[in-house]
Amino acid sequence: MSMKSTAIMIVGVGGQGTLLTSRILGHVAVSSGLDAKVSEVHGMSQRGGSVVTYVKMGEKIHSPLIEKGEADVLLCFEQLEALRWIDYAKKDARIIINDQQIDPMPVILGATKYPENIIPKISAEYGNVTVVPALRMAKECGNMKAVNVVMLGVLARQTEFGKEIWLDAIRQNVKPQFVEMNLKAFEAGYAH
Amino acid sequence: MKKLLLGNEAIARGVYEAGATVSSAYPGTPSTEISEYLATYPEIDAEWAPNEKVALEVAIGASYGGARSACAMKHVGLNVAADPLFTAAYTGVNGGLVIFVADDPGMHSSQNEQDTRLVAKAAKIPVLEPADSEECLSYTKEAFKLSEQFDTPVIVRLTTRVAHSQGLVEVGERETYERKPYVKDPGKYVMMPAMAQKRHVIVEKHFTEMAVLAETTIFNRIEAADSDIGVITSGISHQYAKEAFGEVNYLKIGLVHPLPTELIRTFAASVKTLYVIEELEPFIEDHCVRIGVHVAGKAMLPIIGEYSARLLRERIFGDTWEKQNTLTETAPGRPPVMCAGCPHRGLFFILKKLKLTVTGDIGCYTLASLPPLETLDTCVCMGASIGVSHGMEKAMGKDAMRKTVAVIGDSTFMHSGITGLINVVYNKGTSTTIILDNSITGMTGHQENPTTGRTLKGEKTKQVDLVKLCQAIGIDRVRVVDPFNLEETEKAVREEIAAEEPSVIITQRPCALLKTATFKGQLKINKEKCRNCKACKRIGCPAIVDRGDHMEMNIALCVGCHLCKNLCKFDAMEKVGE
Predict the structure, then answer these.
(1) What does the pLDDT read at residue A2?
(2) Quick one: which of B183, B130, B133, B176 has its CA closest to B154?
(3) How many angstroms separate the first and last alpha carbons of chain B?
(4) Which of A25, B97, B359, B471 could form a disulfide with B389 if both were Cys (CB 3.0 to 4.6 A apart)?
């Protein structure tokens, strides 16, 4: 299958499940016959730090990294992280933002304020922004931790890959006891 | 069939396919998953060792015993394993021995940015460097053959972006490798001067032969194009160069030590402009200079940090990047923090309150150096906390120890803290060491260690008794406290630092992310009772948020450790649902 290279950045906070999301995305690309590279972050930054993973897919991928102005998709699990990584989006990138706010330590300590109106500011600059109340949707599916798969569902709806490929990728990358809940979360995102 | 595999996962697959049966390692980002994946193969006896030196010695022993064996560590782990490494180069191997060393350019999770190629050069060990997951698997299999062919351990050098990127890999079948018989051979395996003098000659001979191999090996390949530009690269730099330079001539080096000479000269002669693209030290570049080949490299590219395709375009072609939006607001930083419910938090709160000098170590608790706890004074390397505090006592006198403690995690204490503690006793020190026993190796993502009672494969095993161990080496004052009990912890710290003899406090409570961690139930802040005194904020819990005019509990994060409840004088912390 020939296809233009696509660069997807997933940004969030350590513990939000960016790693699993990137693995599912990589799986979707490969089962569609594409080359793919998925760059992960392990170790220290997983402890509540800012976390970014890269997924690149296309005919042949060399560097696993995505750089400023190169992302076709910016999948943001948290508002402040959307602001932090916004320069990485192409001008016409699909930007999908979970409207959740997680305060970083400098804000918790009162040393600085959480920036206001992040979503309107980004929407004023970029034409293709989708806002998702993913935390609420995940809760409705029975697990707050399913934010990542809700977001994946939203993205899936905006791509050319068939839905069955996504469902299959989830089944193969999620622990058996969590498959049902994650499929539900995916459907919720897909219907958004 | 091609599968998407993490670099580290592909390494493990390669070890499996090569027919290896033994592996030993100590966890360290970005190398940890190699062992975790190895442990999933029933055919491989995979172990966590207490440190990298022991791990390498085990792998060396397995090799002498005729098995193909593997050993994995991060770059700084190779320093710990340097002693066996340098002499294993002399003894050589029986079954193939491959050491996987993961460097961390950019220091995503490390205390320094050293380049393993230079250590390998000093140790006279050949080095292979894969550039993606596919090469992780194929190079690993070839590394075992190379090891046996030249009677030497082989290092496979990884960097973070290779170890922690997934790429497509063609997986194969496991080779049937028949264990070689062990034959007593003191001339080869006993490195006393008379034997070592003979072995060194053999090492040099093998290295000369490998340098010849480097000229023709499939690891070093030319990708020719219709261009007068040539680029010499290896590892992940090759991927960045391919994106930045496009269709030019490449000499991709896979065997980075020893390097080819004639191949480089021939390649250089075929192009007008020659670049060397390599992260960290000018290893290939220095070799080019030595053999009289002029290259452009570190004069325009940094020694510090990671590369990327953009960095190459900017530094080499002068490309610039224009910001595509008018957003000028800086996003507040989001440094990693101790998790909500972390057992370390209570201890560091007390250490800060007592205004102690705290010599630190490597682990999650190193995060105590960041606001608001800001408690650590030093952090050098694994196990250093105890030696450093003892050195301070020698320099500053006994009185300094009445205001000083060393802090070290359970796994780090097993790794290299025990010898430091023996030294304190032996040399009549009076320092206090606090062992933070959270029942797991935390920072690298939950690995078992000799204090946890489980092996890498999850099997039950004997558990080191920390109290008895400390007593056995001569510590008469050993006590165990619960770090969530602030009163008890403060009392213990005050009493032990006051004592003019060596002492150990073991703070025992499982990591908040372990299934065995128990909590009392989530808390909320009663706005009627809260006087906004902000006392609860001092513990630096990510669940407690300062909203200026009031404090707020983030229910999504609170696990119910109730540490904050101890600090609230107004009884405003209430259990959710009560």
Answers:
(1) 38
(2) B130
(3) 57
(4) B359
Residue B523 tokens read as 């808390």
User: Cα torsion at B15, B20, B23, B27 (round to 10°)?
Assistant: 10
Q: Which residues of B touch A122 (CB under 8 A)?
A: 327
Phi-psi region of A78 (alpha: psi -120 to 50; beta: other; left: phi over 0): beta
Asked whether the predicted pLDDT for residue B502 surpasses 50, the reply is yes
Is residue A14's pLDDT more than 90? no
Classify domain B221-317 by CATH number.
3.40.50.920
What SS3 state is found at B454? strand
Rounded to 5°, angle at Cα B525 from B523 and B531: 145
Judge: B545–A23 Cβ closer than 8 Å, yes or no. Answer: no
C-alpha separations of A186 from A24, A138, B287, B343 in Å: 12, 9, 54, 35
Instruction: Report the residue from B132, B371, B556 with minimal CB separation from A105.
Output: B371
Give Cα separations from A128 to A90, A151, A158 (angstroms).
11, 15, 11
Nearest-angstrom CA–CA distance, B65 and A179? 45
Domain boundaries, chain B: 2-216, 221-317, 344-508, 523-575
Q: Which tokens is A4 given? A: 């233009």
Residue range A6-190 forms a domain whose CATH class is alpha beta
DSSP string, B166-191: EEEEE--PPP--PPPPP---HHHH--
Provide the 3-class DSSP secondary structure of residue B510. coil
Task: Kindly give the residue spans of alpha helices, DSSP state H, lying in B75-221.
Answer: 75-80, 82-91, 116-123, 133-149, 160-163, 186-189, 193-216
Given the cut 0.90, state whether the ipTM is greater than it: yes
Report pLDDT digits (tens) over B90-128. Answer: 999 999 999 999 999 999 999 999 999 999 999 999 999
Contact B239 A62 (CB under 8 A): yes
DSSP string, B288-318: HHHTT---B-TTTS-SSS---HHHHHHHHH-
Q: Which two tokens stand for residue B1?
A: 């069939």
Q: Using CB atoms and an 8 Å cut-off, which of residues 472-531 of chain B contact chain A?
A: none
Whole-angstrom CA distances from B71 to B54, B99, B502 are: 10, 5, 36
